[in-house]
Amino acid sequence: xxxKFKGLFSFLNYGVLSAMxxxxxxxxxxxxxxxxxxxxxxxxxxxxxxxxxxxxxxxKEKVITLTVDQLKVLAEQPFSDVTVYAMEGQKLVPxxxxxxxxxxxxxxxxxPTKGIDPADxxxxxxxxxxxxxxxxxxxEAEQAALAGLDLISKVQINxxxxxxxIYLIRNGxxxxxxxxxxxxxxxxxxxxxxxxHMNPKDLLDWGDVLPVGYNNADAPxxxxxxxxxxxxxxxxxxxxxxNDNLEAKLKNxxxxxVRVTLDAEFRAVILRIxxxxxxxxxxxxxxxxxxxxNMSTPKSYSKYLKDPYIIVAIDGxxxxxxxxxxxxxxDQSFAVDGKMDESELALSGIPIDEDxxxxxxxxxxxxxxxxxxxxxxxxxxxxxDVYTDVSVYYRDDKSLxxxxxxxVGALPSLGYRINGMPENESTAISYKVLFIENMxxxxxxxxxxxxxxxxxxxx
Length: 459
Ligand SMILES: [Ca+2]
Ligand SMILES: [Ca+2]
Ligand SMILES: [Ca+2]
Fold this sequence. Notes:
It contains six helices and 28 strands. Helix content is 8%, strand content 42%.
């Protein structure tokens, strides 16, 4: 058995979901690994000129998010009335989708929520999103396929040279397919490209990342750990905060069939004072984890904070033979061999800006981790001139010991260094990590360009 999502993005509070999991762990543990990509239509049946949609590799992984401006027909409609269909074979069938609602600060919420006008909850308006996979959309439906369905609207999607369609149907069926599954007891996330082990009690504590496509069941984890380090001084006392003394408590899990959001509260406590507080959410889809953090230091403490910086990095596990590329270094690639050469030393400290945002780590088996820092997320600030200065962090050093970690060595460690915190201000950080099998010749820059481009929507 599987969970049925009632169209509405299903909110499950931690306790409730734990109880449900115990009752139904079998259903929740499985992930549908179906390739959501090319939709094939029986030859000879359809009269459409194009009866198979040839989605590219990137398009198969692409999550589409549509706003009320793009779907005016759904404005102020209750989510519970709306379902989404697409052509599969000769028939229109329900596809996985979810509605998501966001606060003014960019955080996903569900149900009646403090600070949110109750009239906005559960109806499509403001910053709400309709979310589905591009790969689930299909060819244009014949009139016959619509028989018996209460059509709200057809939606045409033009993504690069590919045109596809979804159909908004009133009170139709709900698909029971799920692309991402998070197990609250074990902290294991099953996505299409990788299985990720996360400590269910601590959002910053990541363990094994195992590519799903590896044939060798004993293949070692790609990841050693996620490193978070805060340095500087507070009241003239040197700051040395890391994963062990930072709290990232999981508060809620917002579970949907296309992506799952983990909602956490983060505190850095020094001398029993919570000097830095943050609200963090991680949105997990088929191939990526998108971390969104809003961080602040209470006014009364920020004046005692001197030269603070934060390092957030992926610590690879013995990825000898792999390479690193970044958007700042063009075609130059850096060999993962456990030592820093001169060009690698020069890589650290290069500032990140709008145009310079990705870092790419590729294993010799062509499993890829791409980090993407979204500087523009900081626009949520009241004063958008206040940007936090962010630079590349990179270490390829087999003997570097940097606890807490599972294995000695930065092989390699790759991420970002956030320098300083705006005084008396909160700062928003958006950081995405993608897990991609078989990048082949595409490259991170082209992959992200295709992934992040917004398709044209025609109603
Ligand atoms: Ca709403
Ligand atoms: Ca090296
Ligand atoms: Ca390590």
